[in-house]
Amino acid sequence: NSGSSWNNCDFETNLCKVLPEFNLQPGWIRRNGQSGMGPPYSDHNGNESAYFFSLSSEMHSSSATLRTNVFLPTDEEHLCQIKFHYWVSQMSGTFMMGLQKHSEDTVTKIWQVSGELRNRWNVDTITINSTEKYEV
């Protein structure tokens, strides 16, 4: 609708507005396909110099989190949709999205993928409904 606002995250200049700077936890690195770190050798558009986030190769046994800024409550007019491109390279790796509402201590899993789609770019969209402020 005409009231929708899109925030586009491309990681070219910074972390993008959705991911606060201080939330880049150990294990995540901003790199591109020319970094000499192995695949992917380009972003989802085939651009070798475009940046994306990647888990460093030292992170085999543990997990690393990226957390968004606080989103406002949704309603019928203002749904939240997050479209994202992802690459899974390791058989053992699991990529997961969670929702944390501000009244809750726990993170609710809302999306997950494991290694079956590995070694190619994939795209997915999640829709979030929350009557209170939340983070993803």
UniProtKB/TrEMBL annotation:
Residues in coiled coil: none
Tell me which residues make up the MAM domain. 7-136
- Native species of this protein? Donacobius atricapilla
Task: Note the superkingdom of the native organism.
Answer: Eukaryota
* Protein name as it appears in the record: MALR1 protein
Under the cellular component aspect of Gene Ontology, which terms does the record hold? Answer: membrane
PROSITE patterns, alphabetically? Answer: MAM_2
